[in-house]
Amino acid sequence: MKIILVPGFWLDASSWSAVTPTLIEAGHDAQALTLPGLEAVDADRSGIGLRDHIDAVIGAIDAAGVPVVLVGHSGAGAMIHAAADARPDRIARSIYVDSVPLGEGGFITDEYPAVGDSVPLPAWDAFEPEDLVDLTDEVREAFRARAIPEPYRVMVDKQELHDERRYDVPSTVVACEFTSQQLREWMEGGAPFVRELSHLHDLELVDLPTGHWPQFTRPAELAAAILTAVSCTQTA
């Protein structure tokens, strides 16, 4: 199975380096993406918006030539969902890692201050304590050393969706800083940020208790969760 891994904010393809070997050893073709503007700290991020990142994911789907599994971490959940909207017949499963799909007209976040066209990785106290679970001093240091400023418009541009066949794409949420039970309660209560999630017709919720960056804090367990979801897709 072709597995395309899309990193969340401030990260490039190398952020999946502790996860992809397990996927490859299991016989899959795992491709981690570096999105536009994330090529280097000094990359040009002017003019790069959410659609540019979505189009990069769509380009990888088209280049694959076969149905793919999309894995999106954090803010990349918005991107893989928009890709499912654009290519619903080309995606075997979408896997949201500590993330949920973003609906029409929504934006990812405006919580973090921009410096020009970019948003640098903020200080750790800008995050909730649940985000930082298992993120040791050593892991934090390595994360900050590899962090690349995120294009500001990727965070604040509005999501545009057109094809309700996106709701038919089988999907898995790997719940880390929140639990699957919390997700169910939020969906039942009509919480706005899970409204799009509640529309999915084939949804699996999986618990992986840790902070917001399981690819750093529990990579083996994250790889196992991805493999389980892919296995379900292959046998469906």
In summary, what is this structure?
Helices cover 33% and strands 15% of the residues. With 236 residues, it is α/β, with parallel strands linked by helices. The chain has a single domain, classed as Rossmann fold (3-Layer(aba) Sandwich).
What is the fold's blueprint, element by element?
Layout: E1 2-6, H1 20-25, E2 29-32, H2 50-64, E3 68-73, H3 76-86, E4 91-97, E5 118-119, H4 137-146, E6 150-151, H5 152-156, E7 171-175, H6 180-188, E8 203-207, H7 214-217, H8 219-235
Parallel strand pairs: 1-2, 1-3, 3-4, 4-7, 7-8
Antiparallel strand pairs: 5-6
Helix pairs in contact: 2-3
Average residue pLDDT: 97
In CATH, what is the homologous superfamily? Answer: Alpha/Beta hydrolase fold, catalytic domain
| Order of helix and strand elements from N to C terminus | EHEHEHEEHEHEHEHH
CATH class: Alpha Beta
CATH fold title: Rossmann fold
| β-strand number | 8
Low-confidence stretches: none
Indicate the percent of residues in helices: 25-40%
Shape: globular
